[in-house]
Amino acid sequence: MEANGIVLSPDPRLRQECAVIEEITPAIEALAEKMKKIMFENGGCGLAAPQIGELIQLVTIDCDYSDKNDYDPYVLINPVIVEQSDHLVPFSEGCLSIPGISCEIERPDHVVVEAYDLDANLIRYEATGDLFCVCLQHEIDHLHGNTMFERLKPMQRIKAVKEYQDALARGARPGETE
Fold first, then answer.
1. Which Pfam families does the annotation name (predicted)?
2. Domains of the chain as residue ranges with CATH
């Protein structure tokens, strides 16, 4: 199932390991632009390729924009977490593929991510204790077939899935978290 160009849970594409991008082609560049547009139109701060049905390791992230004038997402190709803290902190997360709810997820409060940009430059992103830190981890999870449901304890997951089903029944759309 899809809404506003976003694949919705429990679509099996969201549970698959994504392929490494071997070459940055014009098709990859066009897909990154499409993802930026879809992310903005749905009010997201991050979007992974499987969320639009493409099973490759491509992510767009922009946690700081307020309108179209300052919207300039990072594009991460084949991102990998190379360092993370042992200290876990809770953060209320939403997901464009799981509209209508938010879940409190515990994640490391510091990460270092390496990824390639569209010019094939290796870039290091470092984030501590903020939305960018959470977003990096959340989007990389998508590339490995994990949604925020998989980060929950069993009873929390049961409750969250029920809330999500209720939200869908009410007509929740991507970008809505409550």
1. Pep_deformylase
2. 2-169 (3.90.45.10)
